[in-house]
Amino acid sequence: MDLTKRFNKNLDRIEVSLIRQFDQSISSIPGILRLTLGEPDFTTPDHVKEAAKAAIDANQGYYTGMAGLPALREAASAFVKEKYNLNYNPENEILVTIGATEALSATLTAILEPGDTVLLPAPAYPGYEPIVNLVGANVVEIDTTANDFVLTPEMLEKAIIEQGDKLKAVLLNYPTNPTGVTYSREQIKALADVLKKYEVFVVSDEVYSELTYTEEPHVSIGEYLPDQAIVINGLSKSHAMTGWRIGLIFAPAVLTAQLIKSHQYLVTAATTNAQYAAIEALTAGKNDALPMKEEYIKRRDYIIEKMEAMNFKIIKPSGAFYIFAKIPVAEGQDSFKFLQDFAREKAVALIPGVAFGQYGEGYLRISYAASMEVIKEAMARLEDFMSQYAD
């Protein structure tokens, strides 16, 4: 008996991510410095942890409703109204999920059918395409490399027209992983003007929204496309709560009524004590990201100064906590091997650009969600490694 032949055939379209493959290939190197994780090195704020402890002590260990605690949805509604001028009714337009990942899974499984197409600006976070493939739909990437990783209205409209009736959704992520690119109000409005002409879902992953380094605050596309947009957010990046697994879906009531079905049968409801912690984070801790932002900017600027001196080409990131740098040597076109060599010779782990798709080849991603001490040592080792390529 061979039951492996009876799995969902779409699993054959999914592989272990190149990020994990790379990590496994270098994991045995003693004392390796890792600038790889999309995880803040800060700890969850104490007042948020105390709120979770209080919930546990109060025996708040039972299921919440499928959509999440009413008080949390109210806090989330107030938060995005104040921060991003978004108007979502906490009663029927907000869902609490198990992180942004489950929010994406619940959303994409609800809206996609076999043969559908999803447009995705690239290079892109590698967690999107497997979800799309699992339901038998297809990702079509929009190459943004020639425009400093910025999606233009012209690129978008051309891709929409090319896909025709197959197109079901456009998936945006900004501030963007891996490039750190984000968009101004003018740019978001221009993209929205294109999208509103077409009957497509707009799934917008804005989990890095609180980590925007421009003078202008984050602008959600949900402000301009209230009837089309499904906005994904969460507390992992803004409040250093990756392990708490609290995500959020914001969508008009008519869409939320459908999304809650997939959410319900994936997870039932988010963890109760984590939801109480999230209430505290979104109310008393609504500005907890500010001191983190200040430190991230220092780290970003330090890395850019050092790497540009080594001839890496860098588009200065305006959000998130990643630098996506063009490797300045011929060997760097095979980013996987280049960074394997670097890891084995200098015991520093960065992420090869090819892990973010074909348009990421020749680049590397460095996470500055690490201490300045680690970053300084990593840059010194990189400088030493790059000296072999000096003229």
Which terms would index this structure?
391 residues, globular, four-stranded antiparallel beta sheet, 12 helices, alpha/beta, seven-stranded mixed beta sheet, 39% helix
What does this structure look like?
The chain is an alpha/beta fold and 391 residues long. The protein is built from twelve helices and 13 strands. It has a seven-stranded mixed β-sheet with strand order 2-8-7-6-5-3-4, with helices on both faces. It has a four-stranded antiparallel β-sheet with strand order 9-10-13-12. Helix 2 packs antiparallel against helix 9. The chain is globular and about 65 Å long. The model has no long low-confidence stretch (mean pLDDT 96). Its cofactor is pyridoxal 5'-phosphate.
Set down the secondary structure blueprint:
Elements: H1 18-26, E1 33-34, H2 46-57, H3 70-84, E2 94-97, H4 99-111, E3 117-122, H5 128-134, E4 138-143, H6 153-163, E5 167-173, H7 185-195, E6 201-205, E7 229-234, E8 247-250, H8 253-267, H9 272-282, H10 289-309, E9 313-314, E10 322-326, H11 335-346, E11 348-349, E12 351-352, E13 363-367, H12 372-386
Helix pairs in contact: 2-9, 3-9, 4-8, 10-12
